[in-house]
Design a protein that fits this description.
Structural class: mainly alpha
Number of strands: 2
Largest sheet: 2 strands, antiparallel
CATH class of the largest domain: Mainly Alpha
Helix content: over 70%
Number of domains: 3
Shape: elongated
Strand order of the largest sheet: 1-2
Distance between the termini: 63 Å
CATH topology of the largest domain: Growth Hormone, Chain: A
């Protein structure tokens, strides 16, 4: 028995999987599985019922997976896959002889010829897929499956787009059958080349010991008693019933009813691939992050737009092609979202790895049977309804109308069943879709992708700051992760960014953890952030730090509670303003005035802070830095730290550091360091040598950020003294 490949080897050879899939996608578009073949059959004059019959052979053959999957596991899934996948290309090549058969022996003989060859092709493909589904569960690590599938689909989509562009060019060059033969011949050669890439993919060489028939019968029995698996394949069946016929007959609908030329049809179909291209990575990322279920349900909801839109598309109009482009684009986005979600759900949640042989064989067989049945029935029903025409409620009545209504009904039923399938992740579809209704989701998604590639501290800080400006719930995980970053700058920026984004229970929990157990100066920043967010679950922790924290943390906690409208602390503020530490009494008096001004209303505080959603200029920042309101000054200090230095801003921040309220001084010191103004070095050194311990620590961080190595000996001396 061959050893399984390690995770490192799997990851190293994932490009071979992508290369194989890209070559195979090109084969599918140009050969017997794409629109080129459908238009070729239509050009031969075959009725829709016979076209549906021919194409249904491909999925129907998958029923044989039940018998072959256990055999493939005994022989070795890689060996079985390469053998049958290579053999299918031979039959695809023989189909190229169809025009000669048609010319010499007539249409009936040509039909029989195509059916026999498609049956052989379909059986080889089905046997290869029975082995491939087992192989693929092993060669792609689960933690990368969603993102890998997204990247893989992008590459495959680019290959498909190139194939369709080639097909469109060739089909527009002449009107003979030879144009189809040339395209399918090129596709067959590329399909043969894909086998070379498949041979380089690791794994699949393990051989299972022969098992008695009773063993397989018992295993199959356990599979069919798995309620979650059955609901999954039944939901998939209804969606397949709804979508498979559309893939076959939409090109014919556009040609016969809408009045679009075959070459234009292939170009229009490219927009579906473009929709797939631009959304693949997002769907894969979303499935890994939020779980498969919200991605599947969202994809299904978007898929329903397709049949509804085809019912309303204008016929023989200047708007026909633009409308088709829009519908294909939305359908491309929706279909890849649904496909990636269901694929991940199948491999990660539905199928136990140790029973993959029996699960995947039943899955392939069932899926093939329903897909083939959908295409076959659709083709027959189209022939039966061939004479129907008219108008109903402003819609054109023709055979395709019933196809679209049937498709919509199947998708609705599939959505209802799929919503009951158990899956990984706890994010509901309402919450998932709501994440894209708030803030700037496009900017957030782009920033999240950049965040994962940020190599240094400066890059991480810049992207975290950008995530805060998006005010999108999508950024919550990254902000929470950044709060645990080794770099103080990144942690600080994550806290201030969390304060500026939308409330999140996850971020509130992280901020409370920093408030109670974090570094002293970060605890103070977390207290301010909790006050700005206004999540009332943070009131109890803030009251605790008001009673038990360091003097400056107590002051900052009081300010946060006032911002949240907690009027119950007024007696404590009165006491501290009159009897507390002399250095902090003015700050408590200011906090008490703020409470009286707000009238115990957190909404009034939030209304005042809405001005900071924009990025004020230097003049406005200087005015805000001179305000008597703590929260206005704090916001202005944070925003000033994001700007390039100016003498006016530097002087204002130095003034606050030297003479401002104690808990504002430390923020001003850090802002001077973050701005990168070397003229602030002397004031920072002065404060470092003469100030309170917390301000000294913040000045040290600022000087280190400015690259002042001269403070290192003094820092070591103070650390030694503290230890002693």
């Amino acid at each position: 028995m061959n050893a399984s490949p390690t995770n490192a080897e799997k990851i190293r050879r994932l490009p071979f999987v992508i290369a194989f899939d890209a070559f195979n996608a090109t084969f599918c578009q140009l050969s017997v599985l794409g629109s080129v073949f459908i238009l070729f059959l239509s050009e031969l004059g075959l009725p829709k019922g016979r076209i549906g019959l021919i194409l249904s052979l491909v999925p129907f053959a998958s029923v044989g997976a039940i018998l072959l999957a256990p055999l493939a596991a005994r022989i070795g899934v890689k060996r079985v896959f390469i053998t049958f996948w290579g053999t299918r290309n031979i039959f695809a090549a023989i189909i190229l002889l169809t025009p000669w058969v048609y010319w010499w022996y007539g249409s009936d003989t040509a039909l029989i010829f195509i059916i026999i060859l498609m049956a052989c092709f379909s059986l080889c493909r089905a046997f290869g897929e029975a082995a491939s589904t087992q192989w693929r569960q092993d060669i792609i690590p689960h933690n990368l499956r969603g993102r890998f599938s997204g990247i893989n689909n992008i590459i495959c989509t680019l290959a498909s787009v190139a194939a369709l562009m080639l097909a469109s060019t060739v089909l527009s060059s002449s009107g003979s059958l030879w144009r189809y033969i040339i395209l399918m011949g090129v596709g067959t050669l590329i399909g043969g080349a894909s086998i070379i890439w498949a041979s380089l993919i690791p794994g699949g060489m393990e051989v299972q010991k022969p098992k008695p028939v009773k063993y397989h019968t018992n295993r199959f029995g356990k599979v069919v008693r798995d309620r979650n698996f059955l609901m999954y394949i039944v939901a998939l069946s209804f969606v397949t019933f709804g979508m498979a016929p559309l893939g076959v007959f939409i090109p014919l609908f556009l040609k016969e009813q809408v009045g679009i030329k075959p070459s234009d049809i292939l170009m229009v179909q490219n927009t579906a691939l473009i929709g797939t291209l631009i959304s693949s990575y997002f769907w894969g990322w979303a499935a890994d992050r939020f779980g498969s279920k919200p991605v599947i349900l969202t994809g299904l909801c978007l898929l329903m737009i397709g049949p509804i839109s085809w019912l309303a598309i204008p016929y023989h109009s200047a708007w026909s092609i633009p409308a088709a482009v829009a519908i294909f684009g939305i359908s491309g986005v929706a279909s890849i979202g649904y496909a990636l979600g269901t694929g991940r759900q199948l491999y990660v949640t539905i199928v136990p790895p140790r029973r993959k042989t029996h699960y995947m064989s039943i899955f392939c067989a069932w899926n093939g049977m329903t897909s083939g049945l959908g295409q076959l029935l659709a083709g027959q029903s189209m022939d039966l309804a061939a004479g129907i025409s008219g108008q109903f409620m402003g819609l054109r009545v023709n055979p395709y109308m019933f196809l679209f209504l049937f498709s919509l009904t199947m998708l609705i039923i599939g959505l209802s069943i799929q919503s009951r399938v158990k899956a990984d992740g706890s994010v509901t579809i309402r919450r998932f879709m709501g994440m894209f209704m708030h803030g700037n989701p496009l900017m957030a998604a782009e920033s999240l992708m950049r965040y994962n590639r940020a190599a240094d501290e400066t890059g991480r800080v810049r992207i975290i700051r950008r995530l805060g400006r998006t005010r999108s719930p999508l950024s919550a995980d990254e902000l929470a992760q950044a709060m645990e970053d080794p770099s103080f700058s990144v942690r600080y920026e994550a806290i201030t960014a969390a304060a500026r984004t939308r409330p999140s229970s996850q971020l509130t929990a992280n901020l409370v953890e920093t408030l109670i157990g974090g570094q002293a100066d970060l605890s103070m920043t977390a207290a301010w952030a909790l006050g700005r967010i206004g999540d009332h679950t943070a009131i109890a922790p803030l009251r605790w730090t008001l009673a038990n924290g360091s003097p400056l943390l107590q002051l900052r906690s009081a300010r946060a509670l006032v911002a949240m409208g907690d009027a119950s602390i007024k007696p404590e503020l009165l006491r501290r303003a009159g009897e507390g530490e002399p250095a902090l009494r003015p700050a408590y008096e200011s906090t008490l005035r703020s409470l009286e001004k707000l009238g115990g209303s957190a909404d009034a505080h939030k209304t005042r802070l809405k001005i900071f959603r924009s990025r004020p200029g230097v003049a406005k920042l200087l005015k805000m830095l001179g305000e008597d309101d703590f929260n206005i000054q704090y916001e202005a200090i944070v925003l000033a730290s994001h700007r390039l230095p100016t003498p006016q801003l530097r002087d204002a921040l130095v003034g606050i550091m030297r003479q401002g309220q104690p808990d504002l001084s430390i923020e001003a010191a850090w802002a001077l360091g973050r701005m990168g103004d070397l003229d602030a070095v002397e004031p920072l050194i002065e404060a470092f040598n003469c100030s309170t311990p917390l301000l000294q620590a913040r000045c040290a961080r600022a000087l280190a950020h400015l690259g002042r190595q001269s403070i290192v000996p003094e820092l070591r001396r103070r650390l030694t003294c503290d230890t002693d």
